[in-house]
Design brief:
The complex is a heterodimer. Chain A has helices at residues 85-91, 128-140, 163-169, 217-229, 262-265, 271-278; strands spanning 16-27, 30-37, 51-56, 60-65, 76-81, 98-105, 118-124, 148-154, 175-181, 191-192, 209-214, 237-240, 256-257, 260-261, 268-270. By secondary structure, chain A is of the alpha/beta class. Chain A has two domains: 16-105, Beta Barrel (Elongation Factor Tu (Ef-tu), domain 3), CATH 2.40.30; 118-240, Nucleotide-binding domain of ferredoxin-NADP reductase (FNR) module (Rossmann fold, 3-Layer(aba) Sandwich). Chain B is built from four helices and eight strands. The chains are: A alpha/beta, B alpha+beta.
Chain lengths: 283, 152
């Protein structure tokens, strides 16, 4: 069963003021921001996989996945890649500056459906950010889940997120973390190759596994193909989708994806739900 | 020899191969080791061998003038390293650079080629298995070319 969106206390269209408490550089163009509410009305409860709308006053509003620990309810954490004017303004916020936050929105990862089963996390690039809350949740409730397999692919070693955490996660029992890059420099001693090459290094138990995938759509297409080759059912594969989200509550239709609204019905979808849409050219 | 036969039979590349063929292949095989940092082979050198990696990691590098070599792929335990031994002019097209200490089974390419020529059934079996690997690596290379994580 998919997770239901966490109840929104206030008007979903009204941004709540949050203060920037920390901005940490992850890669040359990617930053993690820790925000804390400026009032006590709005908390930081969310489900792994949900997103917020972040309002950069005077610039614009952006849908950003929450990348922090769901157990820490006094804050919201976002990992943002600076690629345009709004994201650039956001990552350049100083400590103490205000940001408007709406949400959290959307359906999260199926953390309940995954209980008792192996969890396969496949992330590409910044796609690890929306999966990090799920990883925290599984590691904090380790006995409730089977094996945790994390496969992460990045463009190059300098583009990898959360490198210290990846190493720490690998030390947990029944947890396998494999990282690869498309282009390795001479000092890189890890794997070089696309993320799908990592599957051959882990023994999956397809009948008792749930896979959660986030990355560029083309990467997810290669990954779903690989997961199916390894025997995973399409009903046990979940993908995080991204479209141009505006209202975030299914009114405006900007993020319509076939019969679905990514903001309201997603961003996490069962692969079988959207498989035919993913196969449509130029859609 | 018995030990080598067992190791080769357990390698995924040779899984399910007729024992008579395995016997022929073992005649071309030997154990080898490479220290981390050593070159298993270098671009332009004769490709008379291919390897089944038992342990460690090998980087496939492209030599680039006036800059450091570019690593395009890494191979590790259970994987096949090299197919230039199969096709004329039998010359390595890339460097194979041990990133970690490597233990491998080396198969004498000339010896195996001769056996494949003598026994076309064996040759066809080997070729089918190699083509599967070549196809897989071609898919990887195409996926890599797409550069999916770049800002579009």
């Amino acid at each position: 069963m998919m997770n239901m969106a966490t109840a929104i206390i206030t008007d979903p269209m009204l941004p709540q003021p949050y203060s920037v408490r920390e901005v940490a550089k992850e890669t040359p163009d990617t930053f993690t921001l820790r925000l804390e509410p400026e009032s006590t009305v709005n908390g930081g409860a969310f489900q792994p996989g949900q997103f917020s709308m972040l309002w950069v006053f005077g610039v614009g509003e952006l849908p950003i996945s929450i990348s922090g620990d769901p157990a820490l309810r006094d804050r919201l954490v976002y990992t943002v890649r600076s690629v345009g004017q709004a994201t650039h303004s956001l990552v350049n916020k100083g400590v103490g500056e205000s940001v408007g936050v709406r949400g959290p929105f959307g359906a999260g990862w199926p953390v309940e459906a995954a209980r008792g089963r192996d969890v396969i996390v496949v992330a590409g690039g910044i796609g690890l950010a929306p999966l990090r809350p799920l990883i925290y949740q599984v590691l904090q409730n380790r006995k409730d889940y089977g094996r945790l397999v994390i496969l992460y692919g990045g463009r190059s070693p300098r583009d990898l997120l959360y490198r210290k955490e990846l190493a720490a996660w690998a030390r947990h029992p029944e947890t396998q973390v494999l990282v690869t890059v498309d282009y390795g420099g001479l000092n890189w001693r890890g794997h070089v190759g696309v993320v799908t090459t990592l599957f051959k290094y882990c023994r999956l138990q397809p009948a008792n596994s749930v896979a959660m995938v986030c990355g560029p759509e083309i990467m997810m297409r290669f990954v779903t193909r690989e997961l199916e080759t390894h025997g995973l059912s399409r009903d046990d594969i979940y993908l995080s989708m991204e479209r141009n989200m505006k209202c975030a509550v299914g009114f405006c239709g900007h993020c319509q994806y076939g019969p679905h609204f990514i903001c309201k019905d997603g961003p996490i979808f069962r692969y079988e739900q959207i498989r035919k849409l993913l196969e449509k050219y130029e859609f | 020899m018995e030990n080598l036969e067992r190791i080769i039979a357990e390698c995924p590349f040779f899984a399910g191969l007729d024992p008579a063929y395995l016997n022929l292949i073992v005649g071309c095989a030997s154990n080898v080791r490479f220290e981390a940092g050593a070159y298993v082979f270098r671009e332009g050198a004769p490709a008379d061998t291919f390897y089944l990696i038992r342990e460690g990691k090998v980087a496939i590098e492209i030599f680039a003038p006036q800059r450091k070599p570019i690593v395009v792929s890494t191979l590790t335990e259970g994987e096949i390293l090299g197919w230039s031994w199969l096709l004329a002019p039998y010359v390595w097209k890339f460097n194979g650079h041990a990133v970690q200490n490597v233990r491998a089974i080396a198969l004498d390419g000339k010896c195996l080629r001769a056996k494949c020529e003598e026994n076309h059934d064996l040759g066809y079996e080997i070729l089918k298995r190699l083509v599967r690997i070549i196809e897989y690596r071609l898919d990887e290379a195409r996926f890599q070319l797409v550069d999916v994580y770049a800002v579009k």
